[in-house]
Specification:
The chain is α/β, with parallel strands linked by helices. Among the domains are: about 210 residues, Rossmann fold (3-Layer(aba) Sandwich); about 160 residues, P-loop containing nucleotide triphosphate hydrolases (Rossmann fold, 3-Layer(aba) Sandwich). Strand 5, helix 5 and strand 6 form a beta-alpha-beta unit. The longest helix has 14 residues. The radius of gyration is 42 Å and the shape is extended.
Amino acid sequence: MTEFSDLGLSPATLAAVAATGYTTATPIQAEAIPMALQGLDVLGIAQTGTGKTAAFTLPMIDRLAAGRAKARMPRALVIAPTRELADQVSMSFEKYAKNQKLSWALLIGGVSFKDQELKLDRGVDVLIATPGRLLDHFERGKLLMTGVQIMVVDEADRMLDMGFIPDLERIFKLTPAKKQTLFFSATMPPEITRLTKQFLRDPIRIEASRPATTAETITQNLVRIPSSDPKAKRTALRELIARADVKNGIVFCNRKAEVDVVAKSLRTHGLDAAPIHGDLDQQTRMKTLESFRNGSLRLLCASDVAARGLDIPDVSHVFNYDVPHHSEDYVHRIGRTGRAGKTGQAFTIVTPADSRNLDKVLKLIGTDPVEIVLEGIDWASIKDEPRSPRSGGRDRGPARGRERPARDHAPREARPAAPAPVAEAVVATPVAEAPRPERTPRPERTPRPRREPAAVSEQPTRAPERTEQTSRPERSPRPETDLRQDRGDRGRGRERDDGDNVVGFGNETPAFLMRAPPPRSTED
C-alpha cells in the first residue's frame, strides 16, 4: 500500500487529504499522481469507485499553486459528461484546495448564465464544466481557452455514450496544443482510443485494473422472476428491500419514465424514495442528491445519469430494476456500492425478456453472480393493470383498432327479454290548409329585336379622346352560350347579353312598396 506522503504532494495538499480521513492511496492514485506532477500526459483506465477524481485533482492543485488567474481565461479545464459528476468534481476540488488560494467555477446547465459569467469575469484558476454549457459561454464571447495549461477529461467513455465526442474534439482544438492532458475512463472503446491518439502526446498508460471489471468488495446477486410484467418486477423489488438490511440504496432503471413509476410505487408502499433523472430541473436533482448523501433519503431511484462518477461513500445496496442495455453500465451501476474498501450488495432483477442483455453482462464481468429465488410469491396472479395509451390511466373500454371482447352467445330464450319501450300515443289533428291567393298571370314580354354587330372597317380607327362629355363605347355582343356558361360568366361580373335584359323590377312592383307608410306621430 502506498501512502499519500510518498507521492510528492505539497504539505498543504497533504494536510487537506489528511483532513478527509484518507492516508492510503488507491492503485490508480499511486501511479497517476507522480506522473501528473511531472507534467506528463496520462491515460488512466480503472474501474469506477477507485478514486480517479483525486488522481487528477491533487496534482492539478499543486501545479496551479504558483500562478495567477486572469479574467475569462481559466488555467485548468475539467470536462465531465453529466451535471452531477461535474458538481462532484467541484466539491472534491473545494475540499482538497482549501489550503491553497485557488478559485474555481462550475459551468453546468440548469443554472443562471449571469452568475457563471460573474465568476468568469473575476477570473478563475479551474473551470469545471459539461461540454454543452462550456461551448455556450464560448460562443457568447464570455470565455477564452487559450490560457489552458491542464485539461482533464473524466469518464470519457460516458462522453461517447452521450454523443459528446464532436463537442470534445472542438474543445480540444480551442485549447493550446502544448498543454498537459489527463484522460480517465473505465472502458476504452475504439472511438475513445482514436481520440487519445489524436490529442494526447505520448501518454503514460496506467491501467490499474482490467477494463470494466467489478470490485471484489461487491457481492453480486441475480433474482430471476418468471414474469416480465412491470407489477411483478415492482413486487420483487419491494420484497428484496424488505428481506435485505438496506441502510440506503440506489435503484437503477433504463428509462426515465420508469424511474418515476418505481419511485411512486415505493412511496405508495411506505418506503422513502425519490427519483433523479435528466428530465428534472437542476435544483430538484441537486436537492435530492444532497438528501441522499446526508442520510435523510433512504432510496434513490435513478437513471444512468447517476451511474457514473457519483461518490457517495456509504451506499449499502444497489438494485438493478432493469438489466442495462449496455453491459458497461452494469459495472458503473454496481460501482456505487463497495467503495473505498467497504463491502456492498448488488441485486439484479432478471425477467425472461432480459436474456440477451444478461448474456452480455456475464460475458463482460467474467463471473457468475449468486442466484436468489424469491419463494412464497404467486407470480401468476400478479399482473399490472393495462393503461390507456392516450390518457395514461386505466382502460375504460376497447380502443380503436383493438379487438372487442366476444359477446355472449347464449340462446336468446335464456336471456331476459328487455321491456319494450312505451311509445306515447300521438294523435294527428288534421289542419285545414289555407287557400292560396290567386296569382295574376304574368304578361308576356315582347322580345327585343337583336342588334346586328356593326361592320368592322378595314382602316384602323383612332380611339376617341375621352372627355367628360364622351360616353363609354358600347361592347360588342357576345355569342350565345348555354346556361352553365352564362351563369359562370355572370358570377365573374360579366353582363348577360341574351336579348332578355331586365331593368329594375320590370313590369311588377313588389308588394312591400305598395304598403302605406305608418302614420306620423303628432308629438314630434
